[in-house]
Design a protein that fits this description.
- The protein is mainly alpha-helical.
- It has 2 domains: 248 residues, Rhopdopsin 7-helix transmembrane proteins (Up-down Bundle); 48 residues, no CATH class.
- The chain is built from 10 helices and 5 strands.
- The protein starts with 8 loop residues before the first helix and ends in a 16-residue tail after the last strand.
- Helix 1 packs parallel to helix 9 and helix 5 packs antiparallel against helix 7.
């Protein structure tokens, strides 16, 4: 495929359009997350979501400004089109930070799912760090270049970055699926929840791996075009949506969770008369069970239902449901 405006800056424009759509979806997911979980989730999860949304915003803004400078401000100026703007490379730093943060989150979740199996989690962390450092080196070296032609000298390093990212995502998803499959038992509700988790694991891990693999394929098949940049530049937004969808889907996944019912002790509430002298057992519309005691009191039995979240259970609850 010969290089042309369609296969070079046309692909950058497509990356801006598709990336903006994914960014909008991520913002909606972020709004939904903070609206539903701002009081229940720990501070570090909220900090993670905020950090990723900020990085995603910078990434979209920088990429949009870069493409605008190429095709609008310097329209038809060939000497500018061959130049490599530093802003296009700076955008990669934010994408790299998003990828590392999301993969570390998945490794943390896998560590809890595997009950602290370091032999599984540590290699995955090393792969993620390898992908992060290789892309960091690629970005730092790219800042020294002034033309796109010089950037092609880092073709092998670019392939290494994408391969490591794809391998990390595939290994993390595969390990989670294996542990979730292993956690299945004779309880139908538990297995239904685990099946939903397995489906979500595949759905959130495959898009990023797909883009990374296609970036590797396209840089070899069409090295003089920017087709590989199209897939490469979308990975940050896909990581963001992957994390937020995973967090916001917990209510759906919980429909099949384990429910442990505990019966608490009975408490006695003294009756009080209303304006007509009748005994009112409680507030209007109360649905508590009542038994009249010998002393005229009302016995209220409170049934407490404890819900355990498979992904974000507290340490105190992890002993009840081990998955």
């Amino acid at each position: 495929m010969a290089a042309s405006m369609n296969t070079t800056f046309g692909m950058l424009f497509d990356a801006v359009v598709v990336g903006a759509a994914l960014y909008g979806a991520g913002c909606v997911q972020g709004y939904m997350y903070f609206r539903k979980y701002h009081k229940t989730d720990p501070w570090y999860l909220k900090l993670l979501v905020g950090f990723i949304l900020v990085c995603d915003t910078f990434q979209v803004g920088i990429l949009t400004a870069c493409v605008y400078q190429y095709v609008i401000l310097n329209f038809a100026q060939v000497e500018i089109l061959v130049m490599l703007l530093n802003t296009l490379i700076i955008e990669i730093f934010f994408s790299d930070a998003i990828a590392l943060a999301v993969q570390m989150f998945y490794c943390w979740r896998l560590w809890r799912l595997s009950q602290g199996n370091y032999f599984v989690v540590i290699p995955l962390i090393m792969f993620s760090l390898g992908a992060f450092l290789s892309l960091l080196v690629y970005s730092c070296l790219s800042l020294q270049f002034s033309t796109f032609e010089e950037l092609t000298s880092l073709k092998n390093l670019s392939m290494t970055c994408n391969i490591l990212a794809a391998v990390s995502d595939i290994l993390i998803s595969s390990a989670m699926v294996l542990f979730l499959q292993k956690a299945k038992n004779s309880h139908k509700s538990t297995n239904s929840m685990l099946n939903r988790l397995i489906i979500f694991t595949f759905n959130t891990g495959l898009p990023v791996s797909f883009c990374a693999l296609w970036a590797c394929i396209s840089i070899n098949a069409w090295p003089t075009t920017f087709i590989y940049m199209f897939f490469f530049l979308l990975q940050g937004r896909l990581y963001t949506n992957s994390l937020l969808v995973s967090l916001n889907s917990r209510n759906y996944i919980k429909k099949g969770k384990n429910v442990l019912t505990e019966t608490a002790p009975s408490y006695v509430m003294r009756p009080y008369p209303d304006s007509r002298g009748d005994v009112v057992p409680g507030s209007r519309g109360s649905k508590v069970s009542r038994d009249v005691q010998d002393d005229g009191g009302i016995a209220i039995r409170i049934n407490t239902t404890t819900h355990t979240d498979i992904e974000f259970a507290d340490d105190s609850a992890s002993s009840k449901v081990d998955v």
